[in-house]
Amino acid sequence: MSQKSRFFNSKQPKSRINVDKRDLNNIMNDVAFAQSGFLEKEDENEVINQRSIVENVDLFSAQKYFELNLDKFGPYRLNYTRNGRHLLIGGSQGHVASFDWQTKKLHSEINVMEKINDVKWLHTETMYAVAQRQWTYIYDNQGIELHCLKILDRVTRLEFLPYHFLLSSINECGYLSYIDVSLGKKVAGFSTAHGRCDVMGQNPTNAIIHLGHHNGVVTLWSPNVKEPLVKMLCHKAAVKSLAVNQTGNYMITSSLDHLLNVWDLRTYKQLKSIKLNAGASSLAFSQKNLIAAGLRNEVVIFKDDFIKLNEEEIEAEEQYIEDMTPNDIYLKHRINNANIQNLQFCPFEDVLGVGHSYGISSLLVPGSAEANFDAMEANPYESKNQRKQWEVKALLEKIQPELISLDPFKLKQVDRKTLEEKMIERNKKLFLKPKKIDFEPRLKMKGKSKTGKKEARKKAVKAANLKEFVKEVKEYERIENEENKNKEKKEENTVYNVFDRFKKKSK
Amino acid sequence: MKVKMLCRDPNDYVRETKKDIFKMPRNYDSSLHPLEVPREYSRALNSTKLERVFAKPFLGSLDGHKDGVHALCKHPTQLSILLSGACDGEIKIWNLAERKCLQTYIAHDGFVRGICMNPSASMFLSCGNDKIIKHWSYDPLSKSKSCDAIQTIVGKTFYTSIDHHFKKPVYATSGERVDVWDINHLEPVKSYSWGVDSHYSTKFSPVEHNILASAAADRSVILYDIRQSVPMRKVVLAMSSNQICWNPLEAMIFTVANEDHNLYTFDMRKLDCPLQVHKDHVGAVMALDYSPTGKQFVSASYDKTIRIFEANNGHSREVYHTKRMQHVMAIKWSLDDKYIISGSDEMNIRMWKAQAAEKLGLMKPREREQLEYGEKLKEKFKYFPQIKTIKRHRHLPRPVYNAIKENRIIKASRQRKEANRRAHSKPGTVPFVAEKKKAVVDEQE
């Protein structure tokens, strides 16, 4: 085809990527796309409770709403595995049970005959840690005690960092410790110097531990630094609970003064402050940024646009304490006479787990979860074999605790000299002291070595030395001034552009 | 009220039968993959360590020669065939895949200096210290195992190497002169000399077929065009070169293995300064061969090691040695870019992998993907100190290790001396000379 007419050209496909429609259909069929849930009110005053949701959803979803009445051992704490499949509950009176909450299949149920402060799954559903009255124990999925961790004593809260295999805990004395569960070794431990602490959370994006203290301060910790990386005064009363969202950008805190504060963790600024009916005893973020708060016997779930702000508010800088409005509320659920102890949204399921003094409840919260999971990270449908393989891989890819820092992308950045280092270097140059010289004049004959003359000679040498040094410093300063001038000149010389008025004015 | 719950059909996520592969739905949302950088770093570190764990380059040895192997020759089309010549005058044909000797010829009195095959692989030629060139027929299908040469040419002087033209029935030998022969004649067609009494090696260019290069005993490297009657140009180095090898893909580039422990890569058009000096050996470099891609070459040295260099890099990326291997006298890079074959003084021919940690044999796509991903990560994090040290670390024989240390001291001392001399003499009298130019003494046309 030597001659390419216009007709020929028009027939050619425009883009080089030529996807056959049949191929695309095949691809779409191969991968299952789940649709995330939603909830729309018909009018604003409509009251939606769990019963009305259960009546309106399919049978399979309705099964996910359930309550366990365990009034003898409460209040309960609970924890979902990372794939959202298994649930671990621990009653304060010593009752521990782990089960597959979707099929309601019980793995194990034990009574440790001791007070329980917290329960946490480790990396898989075959192991969990229980913070008991005196020590912390690790049990397997049959309830057999694997370890008694005596280095973690009188622990109040536990957190597990899944990519680092670190079990971090805070105890009654406010001592924070990190244990590598793959090696069984203590990695780090610091005293927080804030006294008893039982508010703990982790930032999932950078594995930083957040602690809330009785004086209203929230501290951020990494295992590599003895002092907190950040101290934030979040409240004027004791912090009761905190939670960080999945992208690691927002933190919510609640305190005894009935406030719920929203914080931006990139700027450490407060975004919002809301007055609640009571101090929220427990807070939780869902994967889609819904916020659940436990107020005495009531669970309140706020909408996801709750943390979205218009820019004027940020500009104003002065924060107004707002009252809770019905508009902000997505769902409400009341558990009679109970005291809510713990909340957690189930990953990849539209379910909120509530641990309270009479057992646990699993509530339906449409639209709270990420619909499409990544099977390489957390797979709710994984088989035993897959789990074993994943465990091996995860252990091989364990991140060393030294790599924990506030900015998880730091490792990727160009290693520039920090401003601080530059300043130190500069200061060194400008404020150099002249070298001290130990000059002992030689002995000279014929009266030239009298004390006075000797001293005069010494002085002259020292003066010359000083003079030379001053000259050097002056020269250095001159060069620097010249450079600055040249810079200014360059800036002056540049032609004024129309758009320059939109530039920020330098002060 | 409108309400819909997130609802998944388990059938979409669980495989139907046990013979199916697992379904792995993916979601690339970055919030589901936290700590991406430190995780990648850990993976890169792991794959770097695994690379060193799996670095077992030695594949096996072919023994059978009764004296040191000084000449090797690749079959131009068949990967498994190798020809080798030893100091006792024996030539052996090997099957590399089966590691068996197929045939043995008593070819020469004394050293076999060079073997080469013609492009159609119907015959091979050999030359030796006994001033004889022999033509042998090579026919793997014939049943008669005759061990007689089809042609024997008695020359006036000894021969040090032989190489066949890549297209025409012409070959060249080196000795006291560089001779170009026609395969059907008993006398050389052309004979070149340029004030030199002997040449160590000569090679035809595989791209520009009529260009010939030779390394001479007067420390020079001489270029010839066999269509002309006189040599083209020559460059004189500080010490003599042992062998020459042309880059198989870049027509102008050739590398010489020098007595001063270095290799020099030259551009034919600009001989006054080598393109690259390849340093790392601690003994005279005896032989070298380019990989068929032209990106790397392998060199054999008198220090009993083999090193692999990137063609554009001054230092080697790999060093091979064994306890028993003596001075390595001949080396070849196989034509599938996967293996290296070395012949050494202690009568053995050894086979090595070109990539020390490469897995041989078939790989499943998943395995290959995993390895490729590891390679990419290693590339990404290669400047991190931990990864860099692991990647660079090689175990060396003690004499080589000590020699390197000593060389470092010598170099520092020389630099110091030069700096001192420069500081104490009139400015400009001690000029700065580039490291590359130090080795070149003269260029003549």
From TrEMBL, chain A:
Q: Name one GO biological process term.
A: maturation of SSU-rRNA from tricistronic rRNA transcript (SSU-rRNA, 5.8S rRNA, LSU-rRNA)
A cellular component term from Gene Ontology for this protein is:
small-subunit processome
Which residue intervals correspond to the WD repeats? 232-273
Question: What is the top-level taxon of the source organism?
Answer: Eukaryota
User: Which sequence ranges form a coiled-coil region, renumbered to this chain?
Assistant: 466-493
Which PANTHER family does this entry report, sorted A to Z?
WD REPEAT-CONTAINING PROTEIN 46 (PTHR14085:SF3), WD-REPEAT PROTEIN BING4 (PTHR14085)
Instruction: Please give the name of this protein.
Output: WD repeat-containing 46
From TrEMBL, chain B:
Q: Which Pfam families match?
A: Sof1 (PF04158), WD40 (PF00400)
Enumerate the InterPro entries for this protein.
Sof1, WD40/YVTN_repeat-like_dom_sf, WD40_repeat_CS, WD40_repeat_dom_sf, WD40_rpt, WD_repeat_DCAF13/WDSOF1
GO-annotated cellular components: small-subunit processome
Q: Where is the Sof1-like protein domain?
A: 354-440
Keyword vocabulary terms for this entry: Nucleus, Repeat, Ribonucleoprotein, WD repeat
Region span, Disordered: 413-445
GO annotation, biological process: maturation of SSU-rRNA from tricistronic rRNA transcript (SSU-rRNA, 5.8S rRNA, LSU-rRNA); protein ubiquitination
Ranges of Basic and acidic residues composition bias in the record: 434-445
Instruction: List localization entries.
Output: Nucleus, Nucleolus
Give residue ranges of the WD repeats.
Answer: 62-104, 105-146, 278-319, 321-362
PANTHER family of this UniProt entry?
A: DDB1- AND CUL4-ASSOCIATED FACTOR 13, U3 SMALL NUCLEOLAR RNA U3 SNORNA ASSOCIATED PROTEIN
* Family (UniProt): Belongs to the WD repeat DCAF13/WDSOF1 family.
Q: What's the protein here called? A: DDB1- and CUL4-associated factor 13
Organism (species): Brachionus plicatilis (Marine rotifer)
